[in-house]
Amino acid sequence: MSTTLTDSRTERADRPRMLRGLSWLVVRQHRAALASVLALVLLCSALIVYQRAELIQLLDDAGWPAKPAPEQLLGDQYNYLSTLLGALPVILAVFFGAPLIAADQEQGTAQLATTQSVTRLRWLTVKIAWCLAVAVAAGAVLSALFTWWWEPYRSVFPSTWVEGSIFDNTGPVLPALCLFLTAAGITIGVLLRRVLASMVVTFVFSAAVQILWGELRLHLAPTHLFTYPLDSELPARFAESYEVDRWVASADGTLYGWGSCAETTEKATAACLKEKGIVNSVIEYLDYDQMAAMQWTGAGILIAGTALLTAFTLRRVSRRPL
């Protein structure tokens, strides 16, 4: 009878790995950050699935859509979730993108890694590719789940489709925002070379981008005008349209501000309307059917920005020492 002893370290080394080379090294080095992102995605996914089931139950109990939906169906949990989804791109940029290269520069591991058998550009390319892939995957999963929840029940949600809590968290916009802000964090980290400073600047930059994005959102598609008689109601087909502006108009099409004839008495108002010949109301609006095109246009802008930032980072690193 013979007994063969095998070193457990040899067994572990002989096991086939899903990842090898630089990919394995990057995942191993950033496993804590990757685990945190995975936990955040799983948490948000579970909240979406749970709240969707809860919403469906409440609507079924109320007899919707045959009967009106109860007011305030979505409570504080929904507000927390929408806030967390809106903050996801910033979280990825600050805690995942900004330290990615800056930590290696600050701790000196960048010089160690780039003196091995791989080139500096290849090492950086693999790190950035993994980071951006994780960012876009996290955004895509949560965007798909939130769209799956919101779209069939959008009429009972408190926010309109053009508001950031809906527009930025559905379709391609959320993964594109995650991609762009994470790329910006990486670039800032390469430039500043210090983790804390990079994280602070990335946070400020991300907040500024979110504000500018809110202004840009309404300009991603051309608006339309609709004219209807002054004393009539807006047709029901505009229920899901977003009203950008409103005027009153004369028969020849001259536009006046909505409050042009807001006089103190009905007699004075009627006299003002007659004097200016105002007979119509005019709205400038964005239609719900434009949402998908607006989202893809915005996502294209963000992806182009990501490509520019990544190209700048790779070019700078290939020409200057880390």
Describe this structure as you would to a colleague:
- This protein is an alpha+beta fold and about 325 residues long.
- The chain folds into 2 domains: about 20-220 and about 290-320; about 225-290, no CATH class.
- It is about 65% helix and about 10% strand.
- The protein has 11 helices and 4 strands.
- The chain has helices at about 10-15, 20-30, 30-60, 75-105, 110-115, 120-150, 165, 175-190, 195-215, 265-275, 290-320; strands spanning about 225-230, 240-250, 255, 280-285.
- A 4-stranded antiparallel sheet has the order 1-4-2-3.
- Helix 3 packs antiparallel against helix 4 and helix 4 packs across helix 9 (about 195-215).
- The longest helix is centred in the N-terminal third of the chain and has 32 residues, at about 30-60.
- The N and C termini lie far apart (about 60 Å).
Would you count the extended β strands for me? 4
How much strand?
Answer: 5-15%
Number of domains: 2
What is the alpha-carbon Rg in Å?
Answer: 27 Å
Backbone shape: elongated
Helices, by number, come to: 11
Termini separation comes to 59 Å
What does the average pLDDT come to? 85
Major β-sheet profile: 4 strands, antiparallel
User: Percentage of helical residues?
Assistant: 55-70%
How would you classify the helix and strand content by structural class? alpha+beta
Order of helices and strands: HHHHHHHHHEEEHEH
Q: Which strand order does the major sheet show?
A: 1-4-2-3
Q: Low-confidence spans: pLDDT under 50, at least 5 residues?
A: 1-14
